[in-house]
TrEMBL record:
It holds the Pfam family LRR_6. InterPro entries: Leu-rich_rpt, LRR-containing, LRR_dom_sf. Residues 538-548 have a biased composition (Basic residues). The lineage of its organism: Eukaryota, Metazoa, Ecdysozoa, Arthropoda, Hexapoda. Residues 524-548 are annotated as: Disordered. This is Uncharacterized protein. SUPFAM superfamilies: RNI-like. It comes from the Eukaryota.
């Protein structure tokens, strides 16, 4: 082996670091650091967002997710350092009752919720009216089941003052909820149940609320089929403190017994301002007399309606005369009754008592004399009659002359007076009814099939016997005894044709008028001349001595 092969060349060295100077162990200055030569954005994004209120750094606590749970690394259990979440309301929801929902007092939201709960269709007019003074649902066809929602919604309402439910047929349940509403409502002033046909049972459920309520002043119970039993409930409410001022009770089939019931109630509480008893059966004079006498003591009564009650007779006139003494009476409706004759003359005796009275006597069978007697009262300045209504009452020419004089008076310029047609102005054309009835009676009495009777002589004979005026009953009996074959209808027509002075008891015939017309119609028919009575001869004294 050669020497060349034994000698190897050393491998080439690579330089890793070359010190520049002898102080290579010292660090270079900070300006020469490579990290300081990088461009760094000095603005902090989180700080900028924090200043704008868009970032929250949190509590600074470390989440337990990033902590190693072990005895060697954690001195305290993390759940004690970070307590558990507080109960969000599960315990309260499970163990405590649900808090009640408080609705506004107007009741609009509550009404919709109740309709949704009961499955009833809300009435838009009622919903809007809860914020107004009047809720007008007349002729609306309200479902009686939805009245419960209405009653609950109006319990604390402070806006509605008038609730009109005219002609909406309500059942007993609807009346109950209306009564419940009246126990808490303190704003409602008028409740109109006209034509609702609640009956006695419905009124019984409504009555507790009427007794408690102190804001309701107008109660309309017209056309509700109450009868005398229902009036007993009304009277019970009046006695127990029902604070109603205007009470409407027309079209309820009230009899004379109802007048007695109301009279007993007014002995305890007699403060009604308006009372409507029209279209009933209060035609008994005794009961009406007691009722009107009690109402005359009412210091608050202003309006009384007694129309369409068949009132008639002198005693009714006396009762109205006593009623005129009521100190605040302003409107008295007596239309469509049977007032005439003595009843009119009696009620006029106290007509000067009321102040600014509106007196309605329309559609009464009064004679022109009755109408004239009422009108003559207006000539007196102490009579403070404001309005006199005599519609459909026939008057005569004297009435028109007196009316013209009254309207010229200075204190009667504002007085309203109405009247019906004129009796003497337009005379009917045609046959005279007196001639017709006498011809008919003469034809029947001269019937050849029976024994003929001269009716003229029979009537003249009745006058000759001293009977000048006869009632229709006595006249018929007398003709029957004389054998005159006249039917009752013809006798009544004859009585109307030759009518005597009018009385309240029965029709009468004036035989003097009959005889006068017969003398002009049949002058040849005369009664035979009756011979004068023979003179009584005195016995001579001589003949009397011979007999002895």
């Amino acid at each position: 082996m050669s020497s060349e092969m034994l000698i190897r060349e050393p491998p080439p060295t690579r330089m890793i670091f070359k010190a520049i100077d002898e102080q290579s162990s010292e660090e270079p200055p900070m300006e020469e650091w490579s990290s300081c030569q990088l461009e760094v954005n000095e603005t902090n994004v989180k700080k900028a967002l924090f200043q704008e209120g868009l970032y929250a750094p949190g509590s600074g606590e470390i989440c337990t997710k990033y902590i190693t749970v072990s005895d060697s690394s954690v001195l305290r259990h993390p759940y004690f350092n970070y307590p558990g979440v507080i109960d969000p309301g599960i315990e309260k929801a499970l163990l405590q009752p649900e808090p009640p929902i408080i609705y506004p007092d107007d009741g609009q939201v509550l009404y919709l919720e109740l309709c949704k709960e009961m499955g009833q269709c809300p009435v838009r007019m009622f919903h809007k009216g809860l914020l107004n003074d009047v809720i007008d649902l007349r002729y609306y066809g309200v479902n009686p089941n939805s009245v419960r929602c209405m009653g609950i919604a109006m319990k604390f309402n402070n806006f509605v003052k008038v609730l009109n439910l005219t002609d909406n047929f309500l059942n007993n349940d609807a009346c109950y909820h209306l009564g419940e509403m009246l126990t808490t409502n303190s704003c409602l002033r008028e409740l109109n149940l006209c034509g609702c046909r609640i009956g006695v049972e419905g009124l019984r459920r409504l009555l507790p609320g009427l007794i408690v309520n102190r804001s309701l002043k107008v109660l309309n119970l017209n056309k509700n089929q109450l009868g005398d039993t229902g009036i007993q409930l009304v009277a019970r409410g009046i006695v127990r403190g029902m604070d109603v001022e205007n009470l409407y009770l027309s079209y309820n089939d009230l009899s004379a017994n109802a007048a007695n019931i109301l009279t007993e109630a007014f002995n305890r509480h007699n403060k009604l301002v308006l009372l409507d008893l029209s279209w009933n059966n209060l035609y008994s004079p005794a009961e009406v007399y007691v009722l009107l006498t009690k109402l005359a003591q009412n210091e608050f009564l202003q309006t009384l309606d007694l129309s369409w009650n068949s009132l008639a007779g002198a005693r009714i006139g006396n009762a109205i005369k006593i009623l005129m003494k009521a100190p605040n009476l302003q409107n008295l409706n007596l239309s469509n009754n049977r007032l005439t004759g003595d009843a009119i003359s009696n009620l006029l005796k106290n007509i000067e008592k009321p102040q600014n009275l509106v007196l309605n006597l329309s559609y009464n069978p009064m004679t022109p004399t009755d109408a004239l007697s009422i009108l003559n009262k207006l000539k007196l300045p102490e009579v403070k009659l404001n309005t006199l209504l005599l519609d459909n009452v026939l008057v005569g020419c004297e009435f028109l002359e007196a009316l013209k004089e009254i309207r010229e008076l200075e204190f009667r310029r504002d007085t309203i007076i109405t009247h019906g047609g004129l009796t003497n102005g337009n005379k009917p054309t045609g046959p005279d009814p007196r001639d017709v009835v006498l011809n008919r009676a003469d034809f029947l009495c001269l019937n050849p099939k029976k024994q003929p009777i001269d009716i003229a002589l029979v009537l003249l004979k009745l006058l000759k016997t001293g009977n000048k005026i006869m009632s229709i009953k006595d006249f018929a009996k007398t003709l029957r005894r004389s054998g005159v074959p006249l039917d009752p209808d013809l006798i009544e027509e004859m009585t109307d044709a030759f009518a005597g002075p009018r009385t309240t008891k029965a029709k009468v015939i004036d035989l003097k008028l009959v005889a006068d017309y017969i003398k002009r119609k049949w002058p040849e028919r005369k009664l035979p001349v009756t011979p004068p009575p023979e003179p009584i001869r005195k016995k001579s004294k001589r003949k009397a001595k011979k007999k002895h």
